[in-house]
Amino acid sequence: MICNTAIPLPMRARLPTRPLLPALGLTLAATLACAPPADDAGADAGPADEPDQGGESSYTQVADGVYQYNAGSHNAFFVDTDGGVVAFDPISTDAAAGLAGAIRSAAPDKPLAAIVYSHSDADHATGAPVLRDAFGDNVPIIAQEKAFPIIVAGGDSDLPPPDLTFADNLTLRFGGRAIELHYLGPSHTDNLLVALVPDAGVLFAVDFVSNDRVGYRDLPGWHFDDLYVALDRLMEIPFETVVFGHGAVGDRGTIERQLAYYADLRDAVQEAVDRGLSEEEAMEQVRLDDYAHWGQYEAWFPMNVGAVYRWLAAS
Ligand SMILES: [Zn+2]
Question: How many angstroms separate the alpha carbon of residue 189 from the centre of ligand 1?
Answer without folding.
Answer: 7
